[in-house]
Specification:
The complex is a heterodimer of chains A (120) and B (112).
Chain A: E1 3-7, E2 10-12, E3 18-25, E4 33-39, E5 45-51, E6 58-60, E7 68-73, E8 78-83, E9 92-100, E10 106-110, E11 114-118
Parallel strand pairs in A: 2-11
Antiparallel strand pairs in A: 1-3, 3-8, 4-5, 4-9, 5-6, 7-8, 9-10, 9-11
Chain B: E1 4-7, E2 10-13, E3 19-25, E4 38-43, E5 50-54, E6 58-59, E7 67-72, E8 75-80, E9 89-95, E10 102-103, E11 107-111
Parallel strand pairs in B: 2-11
Antiparallel strand pairs in B: 1-3, 3-8, 4-5, 4-9, 5-6, 7-8, 9-10, 9-11
The chains are: A mainly beta (120), B mainly beta (112).
Chain lengths: 120, 112
């Protein structure tokens, strides 16, 4: 059974940093691209970042470029999201998701999410 | 970015009834490879999204045949037949044709 479990969320002040983790199990982690998708309170879903199966390629939505860094440790089957220079508009639940597709991207399994609140 | 517009915003349905959700994209979702990368997700209350339909009309593993997707180009529909309590939640369409890939704002399905 595919399992994704996020951790590391919480309350953080604007301008500070936070690192999210996602522990994966139930599948061969290093065979899959992975992604972070966020959902602001009472809002819809937004793709945040993607990393290729081997970590050689990364992609970001414009609003987080230069502030967020996606990475992975295939030996530990763990995905990360380093979030720097946080803003109030980054407040959201962050989901780790297994990504599928080559000429397309979609997400077939999601974790339960971890909430990040950026506030002073 | 491609804008995905879902209608209605919310929907009331009786158990055992039938309903449909519309999703319209601001650009054609036909990819240069000939495929149309339109997906549907359901987010049940308090849960993360789950994949229902991929490439317009294909049900993901374990999804009952009460769910069916259709459409082409810029207009797509998710139909739910014989609605059951576990079908309630927010439905999102998602396009994987034009980067950056985008979700619709969601349609909330509630009990009448």
């Amino acid at each position: 059974e595919v399992q994704l479990v996020e951790s590391g969320g919480g309350l953080v002040q604007p301008g500070r940093s936070m690192k999210l983790s996602c522990a994966a199990s139930g599948f061969t982690f290093n065979n899959y691209d992975m992604a972070w998708v966020c959902q602001a309170p009472k809002k819809g879903l937004e793709w945040v970042a993607t990393i290729s199966y081997d970590g050689s390629s990364t992609y970001y939505r414009d609003s987080v470029k230069g502030r967020f860094t996606i990475s992975r440790d295939n030996a530990k089957s763990t995905l990360y999201l380093q979030m720097d220079s946080l803003r109030s508009e980054d407040t959201a639940t962050y989901y780790c998701a297994r990504q599928r597709g080559i000429t397309t991207w979609y997400f077939d399994f999601w974790g339960p999410g971890t909430m990040v609140t950026v506030s002073s | 970015d491609v804008v995905m517009t879902q209608t209605p915003v919310s929907l009331s349905v009786s158990l055992g009834g039938q309903t449909s959700i519309s999703c319209r994209s601001s650009q054609s979702l036909v990819h240069s490879d000939g495929n149309t990368y339109l997906y549907w997700y359901l987010q049940k209350p308090g849960q993360s999204p789950q994949l229902l339909i991929y490439k317009v009309s294909n049900r993901f593993s374990g999804v009952p045949d009460r769910f069916s997707g259709s459409g082409s180009g810029t207009d797509f529909t998710l139909k739910i037949s014989r609605v059951e309590p576990e079908d309630l939640g927010v439905y999102y369409c998602y396009q994987g044709t034009h980067y950056p890939y985008t979700f619709g704002a969601g349609t909330k399905l509630e009990l009448k």
